[in-house]
Amino acid sequence: MFYREAGDFKTSYAADSQTFPIAFDRWRYYFVIAAGFGLLPFIINDYWSNAILLPFLIYAIAAIGLNILVGYCGQVSLGTGGFMAVGAYTSYKLMTAFPWLDMVSITILSGVMTAIVGVAFGLPSLRIKGFYLAVATLAAQFFLIWLFNRVPWFFNYSASGQISAPERSLFGQAVTGPAADPSAKYLFCLVFAFALAWLARNLTRGSVGRQWMAIRDMDIAAEIIGVNPLRAKLSAFAVSSFYVGIAGALFFTVYLGAAEPGTAFGIQKSFLVLFMVIIGGLGSIFGSFAGAAFMVLLPVLLTNVLTGAFGWDSALARHFEFVIVGGLIMFFLIVEPHGLARLWALAKEKLRLWPFPH
Amino acid sequence: MKTLATIAAAGMIAAGPALADLVIPDLHYRTGPYAAGGIPFSDGYQDYFTLLNERDGGIGGERIEIVTCETGYDTERGVECYESTKGQGSLLYQPLSTGITYQLIPRATADGIPLHTMGYGRTSAANGDVFEWVFNYPANYWDAASVFVNFILEENGGSLEGQTVALLYHNSAYGREPIRTLELLSEQYGFNLIQLPVDHPGQEQGNQWLQIRRERPDYVVMWGWGVMNQVAVQEAVNIRFPMDHFYGNWWAGAEHDVMPAGEGANGYRALNMTRLGDLPVFDEIQTVVLDAGLGAGEGNNLGSVLYTRGMYAAMLAAEAIRTAQEIHGTAQVTPAMVRDGMEALEITDARMAELGMEGIGPEFSVSCTDHGGAGMGIVQEWNAAEQQWVTLSDFIESDASVIDPLIAEDSEAFAAENGIEPRC
């Protein structure tokens, strides 16, 4: 009824090809952005920032990154945890070596470094495909974690092998370290998540994204119509690793503050982000956010409901949480194999026709 | 998203306890690969506070409210637990995880909530001059390493020249802690040190034990936790390593670590920071807490190594709160007051006997500069036939001349990195 394009006239090609062609959709999007930037920073406390919104935003960035590689370019990767570790250790080395460097540059440089590493590990993708590529990226995961465990230079020779983020500020506001205001940390991550999601959306709509998708759908056909597989695949690895590296840097500097490679960036992290992408929806920016929300927020929500509202024992609640989240994953994958993004699209389709089904 | 948020917020409001009580959070882990150690510790920790509530009406007339949160030994969940419980007036945290401790040290310091990491966490936190809010009395990892070396020194008549010691460690901040001390001690006493890291969670140790079989070290010392311990003991049995030359630190010396290996584990040795035995307080817990159905767990852990340690940790926390109440003349203490109480804590033999746990730990006192306590440990040996640990030694002192400079060095580096001024 209210969600439809009738009466919403476009007078230019630009207006016609915009991301949100339906006015209602556009306004909803503006509203979410405005609430995220203008409202939430004033009302969130430590818990909401540190335990819920920061991991959500950071995992969303990582999921977008992996989605570019897996969802748009069709190259399966299990090295996400290792690439996040590259971002984290780069930012740690930069923060301790150049204390005057601001956090935005550090984070972006961490992304650039990870992109370089990602391209290096992406080279085999020109020869091997599918499961074999997944195994090659798995090697990257184990090699990188081993490297950060093994070479003391990466953790500045500290006794325990832990890296911890010193306090750094931006515009006079601390954004890392324990003294940082929760809203400052939140805004810092939100700006990155917003800018990167915008960039990803427009990249995937443009010629680069079309090349990636052509490679994904059939690489031989893509090559015949003039897509350079070397450029397309390596650019996908570079952009994807750039995103994952930024997520790893933020994960360490802003969210955790201290990390060790084995537990923070282990193989389970790679799987977690891959699940986010699969559950959220392959080849969808919204899906990356939805998948991150599903995997990060749902367990926290379940814990709060089961122990808080029902008064369950916290260990029992944790066990049930595994059962419920696992069950929901299976349910979603059976009912809608294309992920939450597809469910969302179907809901919008239905809403356009509502209340007249024909 | 929005509805999720509302429900979560509603859940959190419902979870908040009455603010009048003394709130003690228990960040336990009863799930995951480390649950075998997490459950008895948490049972002991909670049961002792329940005992105080039921028998004495709390501490200083103020009832104790235990807030539990499941971390699963996972650092991210630990942070979530900390953030969700700190607003409820939590008096002190004991996360029982070195990884989570590293996350919490800066946060708790900024929030002004004391952190007690008994025999784990960051060793250099023993320097109270730098770490105002962190305590690791009565002993730390470097003490453990030194106690172990002192014990085998005595066994070998004061010389370890030419001997080989293999350190089998959990490849995390926890397992890496003793390396620096052992390296220093190996130079001092002339033994060779082999380092064998085992990756989380520790089920795969085939390579490490192959190497042990090849290199034939005289001693193996293990810094393990969770499932890693059981696997290591079993592997040692499999290669017929002499068990009385295989030592665990105090997190690798509980009943459940050796039981699965059966008879073969006989003679395995481990450090401990508390004495074992039948303490009067166990009878009280049995009658007042467990028989009344108020136990935190199933009650089958009473008296086990880690249960005793959890209870000991709770006793130290309760005594700190009591000290804080005396110093500030109020029963309603705040986290900052508890910190003062911890810093003025004095544990004497008389007091431990009064509490029904005579000689459970060493006598020690805490001061502004010294947050580390006595730094002593005992050595115990597993008797597989009797299914119990046998105490081999009295409390052995660590070598302060080795450890103190290391603590000073590491804590000063931390102070310089974070711009902390010495405060004592």
Brief synopsis:
Chain A is mainly α. In chain A, 72% of the residues lie in helices and 2% in strands.
Give an overview of the whole structure.
The complex is a heterodimer of chains A (358) and B (424). By secondary structure, chain A is an all-alpha fold. Helix content of chain A is 72%, strand content 2%. Chain A has a domain of 221 residues. In chain A, the strands form 2 sheets. A two-stranded antiparallel ribbon of chain A has the order 1-4. In chain A, strands 2-3 form a two-stranded antiparallel sheet. In chain A, α2 packs antiparallel against α7 and α4 packs across α10. Chain A is globular and about 70 Å long. Chain A starts with 12 loop residues before the first helix and ends in a 5-residue tail after the last helix. With 424 residues, chain B is an alpha/beta fold. In chain B, β7, α9 and β8 form a beta-alpha-beta unit. In chain B, α2 packs across α12.
**Spatial separation of the terminal alpha carbons of chain B:** 49 Å
Q: What ranges of chain B have pLDDT less than 50 throughout 5 or more consecutive residues?
A: 1-18
Considering the protein shown, what is the CATH homologous superfamily of the largest domain in chain B? Response regulator
Q: How widely separated are the two ends of chain A?
A: 13 Å
* Oligomerization state: heterodimer
- Rg result of chain B: 21 Å
Low-confidence stretches of chain A: none
Mean pLDDT of chain A: 89
Number of helices of chain A: 15
Number of strand elements of chain B: 14
| Main sheet makeup of chain A | 2 strands, antiparallel
Count of helical stretches of chain B: 15
What is the number of independent domains of chain B?
Answer: 2
Q: Quickly give the CATH architecture of the largest domain in chain B.
A: 3-Layer(aba) Sandwich
Biggest sheet layout of chain B:
8 strands, mixed
Q: What is the number of strand segments of chain A?
A: 4
* Overall pLDDT level of chain B: 89
Largest interface: A-B, 44 and 52 residues
Helicity level of chain A: over 70%
Strand content of chain B: 5-15%
Global morphology of chain A: globular
